[in-house]
Specification:
Blueprint (H helix, E strand, L loop, with lengths): L2 H34 L6 H10 L1 H15 L12 H28 L10 H28 L4 H5 L4 E6 L3 H12 L5 E7 L9 E2 L2 E5 L4 H8 L3 E4 L6 H14 L2 E4 L3 H5 L9 E2 L15 H8 L3 E5 L4 H11 L5 E6 L2 H13 L6 E5 L5 H11 L3 E4 L6 H6 L1 H21 L4 E7 L8 H17 L7 E7 L1 E3 L5 H10 L4 E3 L5 E2 L1 E3 H14 L4 E5 L5 E2 H11 L10 E3 L18 E3 L6 E5 L5 H11 L8 H8 L12
Parallel strand pairs: 1-2, 1-5, 2-4, 5-6, 8-9, 8-11, 9-10, 11-12, 12-13, 13-18, 14-17, 15-20
Antiparallel strand pairs: 3-4, 6-7, 16-19, 18-22, 21-22
């Protein structure tokens, strides 16, 4: 639409509002006088009122206050409790101003001044204005919700009848959204909740009829077509039970997004989704000190390497929401970098991002980034992370994960970067894989550079385990195998892993970075380890199949470099608490910069394709706790 047309429509809208508001304010003002005098206002008092001209200054004052409180900018039909409070505050401000004038007038007694109304008229006018203005807006909202436009009108005739499991705050909000937004095609008809004290009551007119165990009875009585689960993240066992009940009854089941997704503004409570594995893990929601994180990132130039990967991309999302001065996206994969660039643009961050196609092994390119762009903080997430693949090509793991980290960290120190955060892995603890060993040497490198004479950069590393849904992780592999009809391949019946969601792990990385003073290795509390075979069974069930009946689970044996279970710390590391209960700090005696330089000098000539076993055995001289897998 042309700008002139938009401007004309805006002027017309504001003029219409001005006329409507003025008429309603005049009506409320005169009605207040009528009520004050029991609708028996004498003719001489009416003339007195007009002569003094109270309406001529009270109404313009009210209009100005309404404008200052944003009542000319919002859509009238969108009206909730916060809008009511703003409206009441606006009219209370007018009433307070009038009361001050009344007090001044009664002390000075200026006979010819347009004296203010009486105290009773001021109070009645406040109540009337609040009542009529909120009533009009509520009426418009009711009309909008009962007459949705477009496809909503047709969907209103075929609303899907929904049972909401969980009659708490989230469930209440979901029900309100469904009732208000008929275009979603969902109609909440009952609540199910384990709290017996809620049974027999109603929320937004929707009855709480019993516990979820009564679903089979409730389904017949209320013709339930879909279930929406609105339970807390810690109620994973109950979520699993409800999913099982619904599956047996053949009822479609979806869930409200996690509190993390709601709090971060990613989604709304009404944007329900299918139940996923993370809903069954039973992890406590993570609480972050957002102010400290924002204070660390705001108005600073931030570099994220590996920006196109799962962790790097989420780092970009969360950093961009903390108002950095500039966000530099570095990745050697043009395809992945393009994808995160487009996502950042769609999220409104086009003015602050700069995508850079580069390898962390390209010294000249990294030097240019440090010297020209002058970053304050570097999040180094670029890495080769696939354990079995790196076992067959250890040179590539060492070049990218170890030498790349050392090069970037050294340049960060040289150019005075404030903070350097290495994204590490729990596989670096007592490693049995080349990938884990390469990351352990990377940790040793940054700890050594921290101790280098004249260094002013704060270096730290953050270790965490498997991330749900990340590229190359077990979850996408299992989903693909299930979609293909099986079998789902598990390495060993006893193998366990720690799991975290991508947003959760990145949020804790940022929180750990705020606590770094230099040389620490942070380990994220990943809850209890989970058997991979249990993960496979749950994913099969969530996909609507029966393990070992519809989809086979096949054990194929541990792959090269893999462990049965991951560890938290290696020998020589000392545990120290942090200000966050989900983050642990480990401190070890670092190797000297000279020792690290000597190790790297002896390592570099060996980085040519050749004897893998010889390379792995050499690495034990740098990382004695490394147990190599030999062909």
């Amino acid at each position: 639409m042309p700008k002139q047309s938009l401007k004309r429509d805006l002027l017309l809208r504001n003029f219409t509002l001005l006329v409507g508001y003025t008429g309603l304010l005049i009506f409320c003002f005169y009605l207040a006088y009528e009520i004050r005098n029991d609708f028996q206002v004498a003719e001489n008092e009416k003339l007195h009122l007009a002569r003094r001209g109270q309406v001529m200054w009270v109404v313009p004052l009210e209009l100005v206050i309404l404008y200052l409180f944003g009542q000319f900018r919002g859509f009238l039909s969108y009206f909730r409790v916060p809008d009511l409070f703003r409206l009441m505050t606006a009219f209370a401000t007018v009433a307070g101003f009038e009361m001050v004038l009344w007090i001044i007038y009664n002390r000075v007694k200026m006979a010819d001044s347009p004296y203010p109304p009486s105290r009773s008229v001021i109070a009645i006018n406040f109540l009337l204005c609040t009542f009529f203005f909120s009533g009009v807006r509520m009426g418009l909202r009711v009309y909008r919700e009962s007459h949705p436009g477009g496809s909503g009108a047709s969907s209103r005739l075929n609303l899907k009848r929904v049972a909401i499991v969980g009659a708490g705050e989230v469930g209440s909000t979901v029900a309100a959204d469904f009732l208000a937004r008929r275009g979603l095609g969902l109609k909440p008809v009952v609540f199910l909740d384990d709290n017996e004290q809620k049974h027999g009551h109603e929320i937004h007119g929707v009855p709480v009829v019993g516990a979820p165990d009564r679903l089979s009875i409730v389904r017949e009585a209320y013709d339930i077509q879909q279930i929406v689960i609105a339970l807390p993240a810690t109620a994973s066992r109950r979520v699993r039970e409800v999913v099982d009940i619904a599956k047996k009854l053949g009822i479609e089941t979806e869930i409200v997004p996690s509190m993390w997704e709601l709090a971060s503004g990613r989604v709304q409570s009404s944007q329900i989704r299918p139940v996923e594995l993370q809903d069954l893990l039973g992890r406590e929601p993570v609480s972050l000190d957002s102010e400290h994180i924002r204070g660390m990132l705001q108005d600073r130039v931030i570099v994220v390497t590996g920006a196109g990967g799962s962790i790097g991309a989420e780092l970009c999302r969360q950093v961009a929401n903390r108002f950095p001065k500039r966000l530099i996206l570095v990745d050697q994969s043009e395809v992945q970098l393009f994808q995160i660039e487009q996502e950042m643009i769609s999220l409104g961050h086009s003015q602050i991002i700069l995508p850079v196609v580069a390898s962390v092994l390209d010294e000249a390119r990294m030097e240019w980034i440090m010297q020209t762009l002058r970053p304050s903080i570097v999040f180094h997430a670029a890495a080769h992370k696939h354990v079995p693949m790196m076992e067959h090509q250890p040179v590539e793991a060492l070049k990218n994960n170890t030498l790349g980290t050392h090069l970037l960290a050294a340049l960060a120190a040289k150019h005075g970067v404030e903070k350097f955060v290495l994204i590490s892995t729990d596989k670096a603890i007592n490693p049995t894989s080349v990938m884990g060993c390469s990351k352990r040497i990377a940790e040793i490198c940054v700890q050594a550079i921290q101790q280098a004479p004249g260094n002013k950069t704060c270096f730290c590393a953050v270790r965490f385990g498997n991330v749900l849904g990340s590229s190359g992780s077990v979850i996408p592999t299992f989903k693909r195998q299930i979609a293909d009809g099986g079998p789902v391949t598990v390495t060993h019946p006893e193998v366990t892993r720690y799991f975290m969601t991508i947003p959760e792990s990145v949020g804790l990385v940022l929180q750990a970075a705020t606590q770094a003073t230099g040389g620490e290795i942070f380990v994220l509390d990943m809850g209890q380890p989970i058997k991979i075979v249990d993960v496979a069974r749950q994913l099969i069930e969530l996909s609507g199949f029966r393990p070992e009946v519809d989809i086979e689970i096949k054990f194929v044996g541990l792959r090269p470099g893999e462990k049965l279970f991951e560890e938290i710390q290696h020998t020589g590391e000392q545990f120290a608490p942090t200000a966050h209960d989900r983050i642990m700090r480990f401190i070890a005696t670092p190797a000297s910069p000279a020792q690290v330089e000597a190790w790297l000098a002896s390592l570099s000539p060996r980085l040519i394709p050749g004897d893998r076993n010889a390379m792995k055995q050499f690495l034990t001289s740098i990382v004695p706790e490394y147990t190599p897998f030999l062909d």
